[in-house]
Amino acid sequence: MSLFRADQSLASHSYYAATVPQGPCFPSLSGELECDVAVVGGGLAGLSAAIELADLGFDVALLDARRIGYGASGRNGGQALAGLACEQSVIESQLGAADSRAVWDMTLEAIALIHARCERFGIDCDWQGGYLSLATSERKGRELAQWHEHMQRRYGYQATPIGPGEVGDWIASPRFHSGLHDPLSGHLHPLKYCIGLARAADKLGVRIFENSAVTSLSHGTTATLHTADGRLRARHVLLAGNVYLNGVAPLLARRIMPVGTYVVASEQLDPALARSLIPSRAAVCDTNFVLDYFRPTPDDRLLYGGRVSYSTVTPPNLEASMRARMARTFPQLKGTQVEYAWGGFVDISMNRAPDFGRLSDIGGGREAANVYYLQGFSGHGLALTGLAGKLVAEAIGGDATRLDTFARIRHRPFPGGPMLRTPALVLGMAYYRLRDML
Prior knowledge:
Elements: H1 3-6, H2 15-18, E1 31-40, H3 44-55, E2 60-63, E3 79-80, H4 88-121, E4 128-135, H5 138-155, E5 160-162, H6 167-170, E6 178-187, H7 190-203, E7 207-209, E8 216-218, E9 223-226, E10 230-239, H8 250-253, E11 256-266, H9 271-277, E12 283-286, E13 293-296, E14 302-309, H10 318-329, E15 338-349, E16 355-358, E17 371-375, H11 384-396, H12 401-407, H13 417-437
Parallel strand pairs: 1-2, 1-10, 2-7, 4-12, 10-17
Antiparallel strand pairs: 3-6, 4-6, 5-6, 8-9, 9-10, 11-14, 11-15, 12-13, 13-14, 16-17
Helix pairs in contact: 3-7, 3-11, 4-11
């Protein structure tokens, strides 16, 4: 079943969509067109690549199956964080110390890139600095402290340790034992940011087409993308649709899984109460494998995410269960109403590391050397997507050094094939949920 059908209802009651001015409307592709680079996917990765390519002088056309920001880019938790979804040790073991440090430094660059683009293009996306990583037990507090020591020693990671006696100064919740405060990371309104990038790309001459799902891709020196009403011929192609490519590139589909993620927004709180919950107004994640994440909004709501689904089925009683999770973290919010509840699908890789490269690198044949792809952000892509688009633009412009660093990260397809991989993942995640409870 198409994920577009599976998540239509999830997209309809989003706080982000309700609080963003109407974005520009772009036509659908009709007839035959040619360009230097065709970008598939109107999210943060695709728009970032389009902007960078336009800056380099390429003629760029971008196709989105629905609207700009329809998928995870416009519906995520809004947390822009340094690092990757996987542990840095995954990168160290595969790439070695020097390239692992290069990857880490690129994740810091990704955050700086958000600020640079907001300044350059005048994008107001409600940026708020600060990120709290919080442990829910003494054991997890020790693990977090050990991780911080390693990251500080090897990567120069600057974060403020928060001991058990201080955690109450940072968050008004009984759930947490200790934590870290990262001043570089932060949070924003992702749909405002995404629409701002689309306006910027449009002004730079990128031709954007909405409601133009790619139905097939023909490889060759000049690739051809087919839609319901048109054909687009290009010397280079970037596939940045993640789980929404709908079979256009089967080689990629085997390497990621769609995971449903869900967020609610509370009713507006009394300003004093809202300020007391997280005095620094930072974004927050716990350190569980299946984690909860939340943040305040400029209009004194709490955005709270925490449930996931490893099938395409939305959990029952979503709003009530999320309200209960919010009250478990903040008992003072018991009885607080939820005004928005939404979700969508993110792409996860087996090792939760990002999966960037060319189709020719993973068995697509020499004729697919001009087809690039970006996927596997694993729920940690709000900042990294922007940097990823820049890396593809660099590669198409003639310098693939940084993209090739990521392309060396090894990925395996999910076991079980199309029929069994979802049940296998559900069983695996049940194990991690049990671990989180210990």
